[in-house]
Amino acid sequence: MADNQPLFQRVAVIGLGLIGGSLASAIRSHNLARVVVGFDQKPEDAALGVDLGVIDQAATTLEQAVRGSDLVVLAVPVRATRVVLEQIRPWLASDAVLTDVGSTKSSFVADVKAVFGNLSPRVIPGHPIAGSEKSGIRAANPDLFANHKVILTPADDADAAALSGLTALWEGTGATVLTMSVAYHDEVLAATSHLPHLIAFSLVDTLAGEDENMDIFRYAAGGFRDFTRIAASDPVMWHDIFLSNRDAVLRVIDHFTQDLDQLRAAIANGDGATLLRVFSRAKAAREHFSKMLSGQAYVTNNTDKQVIFSMQPGGSVRGDIRVPGDKSMSHRSIMLGALAEGITEVKGFLEGEDSLATLQAFRDMGVTIEGPEDGFVRIHGVGMHGLQAPRGPLYLGNSGTAMRLFSGLLAAQPFDSELTGDASLSKRPMGRVADPLRAMGAVIDTAEGGRPPLRIRGGNPLTGIHYEMPVASAQVKSCLLLAGLYAEGVTSVTEPAPTRDHTERMLEGFGYHVHRDGATASVTGGGKLTACAIDVPADISSAAFFLVAASIAPDSDLTLRHVGMNPTRVGVINILRQMGANIEVLEERVIGGEPVADLRVRSAELRGIDIPEDQVPLAIDEFPVLFIAATCAKGRTVLRGAEELRVKESDRIQVMADGLAALGVETTVTPDGIVIEGGQTIGGGTVESHEDHRISMSFAVASLRATGPIRINDCANVATSFPGFVDLAKQTGIQISTEGEF
Question: Would residue 103 be called left, alpha or beta, if left means φ above 0 and alpha means ψ between -120 and 50 degrees?
């Protein structure tokens, strides 16, 4: 940044403690302002700031500091804010940006309104999530904010230039800037910062009053010292914070006290099950915090992650690999295991973000789940009626499967629930499950257009229905069958074309009979599930990328191990074989009711075909990569009857057509499919994935036959369905690298 123009001409920092001094020092170090002026109620500290190189000039009065400054930063104790605002009001220029660094934002906004009469669009409250138990101007550190978060809480009418300038200033210090509302900030900080400090102060104070206090502190383990370190923080500052954020802090204290009372009761009563449930839930939440809570916690936000795939053209695909476990079965194993009686053990569980979100959601509903560890999960089932009300919305990441299946399970629970997801999932239609569930008696509210979040009202009895699905969808079928477990009478679903039957097979494995009559599956409510062992096969949808890769790349020979061969999922193999692919099915076997095999695939001259419509539902998730195969084939490939593809994570037909066009490949999009003339040259270029993981991986495969480098934007969601894709692709010979945090 040193060679760039400063962002501000004159910055006044009021208060030269740890945060104010560190910010002033960082601004100077990175040349973010022409002049940094500091003021402190202790004139000697301001003078010392000049001597230490923290500030350029020491102001002896607030007028001297503020007059002529285009950015004024208040770094004073939050309880002193109003007095300081009153003092600087006469000297603050109307076009100056005003911000602060306080830990509570509602109180700052209230103080600004009290002094100025309104909240100017150029007032941008701020809060750096950084600190130290050290304090004072001597602790000032220009690197304090590097790799830390800074939260800004601009009002809806905030000045765009002011927000942009302040954001750039904080980013210039090395921080990552997030924005959120004032109220949400105070709620989040009460839980994640203020409560831990309160507990640390209280715990140290309590133990200091014990008779054995010297031995307690002398023999304390590292965990105690690490946790109670924050009790050495500035008492005056924290006194101010707790009083300024009173309401939010009281709410979280009450919640914590209630939970602590439950743990006390569990210990008193020898209730090991409750202890194990709480501890395992907390352990998992801590381990996967950044993944599973990203949609609701300020610490990380997957929608902010920018991951780009960079592909070099050409290569062949060789090796012996096993792709991750089947996502559909991983979801269902957690769901049914949680509702079963007894302990269910799962091997081969997919440790992707979506599956982990499902696992965490059941922990949030009181289910004890151990793991996952190397794909092994142990689920302590609570029975059909043992779920507990979650303490907040259930966040399901990017998974439409989870949201639609959860809606069926939760429709009959006695408690209210809310289902949320990431930005991509929040755009997807849920009316297709909400409408038939309402016909069964469920009360479900959706956002505009039938989209998430889904709010499900508890305590409504369900009645079985017969439902003729207008469009083949395994998710809709599974949703209604799961709701049918709780419904009065028989619930039956007729599908217009075969879809994957993992739910039916797994229900049978858990001892719950599913009656099948042609295209109709039905269940009778009121039964129970009995725990069992599950071995999740490798996901054929994940294998599909490598099946196509080895088919289109010259001199390829690849073996894929333990692939699920469910008859409702093998459309991709059937279609590729009709196109001339060389795929051998080896070592066929049945494990846990699901057929499994090893697949060997070698290079082949593919030819275009009219894809049989009866195969479309059996390959609905694999068409993006099949479009790449069609582009490399000789002759024309025609897809019809694939309306379902237009309401996936993206409009997959149009997004694939746009991506191919960006690489110089012409296609014809139809209302229910696409026409691709094979044999066209795949050039280099930039492809927009629209945050759809299958689009990203499909164009990674296309690079094998490209004539130039390919760049694929917005690939962060690949981790949700196929963890380890990039490493596995490299291992087999695909020339892929990533930019950004993956």
Answer: alpha
State both tokens at 714. Answer: 């917005």
Q: Mean pLDDT lowest for which of 613-617, 635-639, 653-657?
A: 613-617
Helix, strand, coil in percent for the chain, rounding step 5 = 40, 20, 35
Q: What is the largest CA-CA distance in the chain?
A: 88
Mean pLDDT of 550-565: 96
Indicate whether 648 pLDDT > 70: no
Structure-block tokens of residue 399 = 């998974």
Least confident of 210-214, 227-231, 284-288: 284-288
Q: 689 is written with which tokens?
A: 């994935």
Return the SS3 of 351.
Answer: coil
Q: What are phi and psi of 731, to 5 degrees?
A: -60, -35
Q: What is the pLDDT of residues 123-154, one digit of tens each?
A: 999 999 887 666 788 888 999 999 899 999 99
Can you tell me the distance from the alpha carbon of 565 to that of 356, in angstroms, rounded to the nearest whole number? 24
Q: In 70-95, which positions are buried (b, 16+ CB within 10 angstroms) versus exposed (e)?
A: bbbbbbbbbbbbbebbeebeebbeee
- Catalytic annotation, pick one of 539, 621, 692, 714: 621
Q: To the nearest 10°, the Cα dihedral for 599, 603, 605, 607?
A: 40
Residues annotated as binding site for phosphoenolpyruvate? 327, 400, 428, 475, 652, 694
pLDDT reported for residue 421: 87
Query: What φ, ψ does residue 277 adopt, rounded to 5°?
Result: -65, -50
The contacts of residue 93 (CB under 8 Å, 6+ apart) are 67, 68, 69, 70
Helix (H, G, I), strand (E, B) or coil at 180: coil
The contacts of residue 232 (CB under 8 Å, 6+ apart) are 133
Q: Element (H or E) spanning 670, and its range?
A: strand 667-670
How confident is the model over 594-611, as a mean pLDDT?
95
**Residue positions in the annotated binding site?**
327-328, 332, 400, 428, 473, 475, 621, 648, 652, 694
Average pLDDT, the chain: 88
Is 621 an active-site residue?
Answer: yes
Beta bridge partners of 463: 488
pLDDT tens track for 246-294? 887 888 888 889 889 989 998 999 988 888 878 877 776 666 554 444 4
Determine the Cα–Cα distance for residues 209 and 217; give it in Å rounded to an integer.
12
DSSP state of 530: B
Interatomic CA distance for residues 84 and 82, integer angstroms? 5
DSSP 710: E
Which pair of structure tokens corresponds to residue 55?
Answer: 């500030």
Q: Other C-beta atoms within 10 Å of 263: how many?
A: 14
Asked if residue 197 lies in contact with residue 230, where contact means CB atoms within 8 angstroms, the answer is yes
Position with higher pLDDT, 595 vs 3: 595
**Mind listing the pLDDT tens digit for each residue in 349-383?**
988 778 888 998 998 898 988 888 888 999 999 99
The H or E element spanning position 165 is: helix 160-172
226, 303, 324, 460, 687 from 307: Cα distances, Å: 34, 10, 21, 43, 13
**DSSP string for 197-257:** HHHHHHHHHHHHTSTTHHHHHHS--HHHHHHHGGGGS-HHHHHHHHHHTHHHHHHHHHHHH
pLDDT, tens digit (0-9, with 9 covering 90-100), for 169-191: 999 999 999 999 998 888 888 77
Binding residues for 3-phosphoshikimate: 327-328, 332, 473, 475, 621, 648
> How does 667-693 read in b/e, with b if 16+ C-beta sit within 10 Å?
beeeebbbbbbbebebebbebbbbbbb
Please tell me whether residue 340 adopts helix, strand or coil conformation: coil
* Strands of 636-639's sheet in order across: 636-639, 673-677, 667-670
Please give the full DSSP string across 281-315, using - where no structure is assigned: HHHHHHHTHHHHTTTT-TT--GGG---EEEE-S--
